[in-house]
Amino acid sequence: DGMNMCMFMQNTLTRLMRLPLISVALVQGKAFGGGAELTTACDFRLMTPGSEIRFVHKHMGLVPGWGGAARLVRIVGSGAALQLLGGAARVDPERALSLGLSEDTLPSSDETTALGEARAWLSQYTEGPATVIRALKKVVTAGRELPLEAALRTEKDIFGTVWGGPANLQALIRRPKHK
């Protein structure tokens, strides 16, 4: 049963990570174990004051099984990942920022206010034509997951889908020169 859950959750979180949209995990309170693994499947992580991320698997006689360890290594590096996993360390917002595990600490701990702050933070990356945002996510995913030559081919192919498209033509009309 554990192996079936492991395979199901690896597949689910990998599908989340590969969605053609930009995702953010908003950590309010405690993201322990599977919750910590879930945060690694998102493009960005934001935390509220007093929140924490903790990979507690070692205390349960386990290792992450949902892909959290592999993704954590890619986010913070192998040394920091080994410390977080091996020490089951509490990661508060300040430490998460210093490790690169979190992009920002929001000002509010209030659930509703923090959600609005997270939306505002994320909008800097998601505003614009949906076709371009999806294309950006695809090229970043390819760059992260594929060998260089394959990632370059994917980038070229995706570039071809937006070159001369409506968003490109509108941008050329608005800004013929970069300033």
Q: Give the class from helix and strand content and strand pairing.
A: mainly alpha
**What percentage of residues falls in helices of 4 or more residues?**
55-70%
- At the fourth level of CATH, the homologous superfamily of the largest domain is 2-enoyl-CoA Hydratase, Chain A, domain 1
Radius of gyration: 18 Å
Strand proportion: 5-15%
Note the overall shape.
Answer: globular
Write down how many β-strands occur, each being a DSSP E stretch of 2 or more residues: 5
CATH level-1 class of the largest domain: Alpha Beta
Low-confidence stretches: none
Total of domains: 2
Main sheet, how many strands, which sense, barrel? 3 strands, parallel
Order of helices and strands: HEEHEEHHHEHHHH
The CATH topology name of the largest domain reads 2-enoyl-CoA Hydratase, Chain A, domain 1
pLDDT averaged residue by residue:
95
Arrangement of strands in the largest sheet: 1-3-5
- The separation of the N and C termini measures 58 Å
Tally of contiguous helical segments: 9
What CATH architecture of the largest domain do you see? Answer: Alpha-Beta Complex
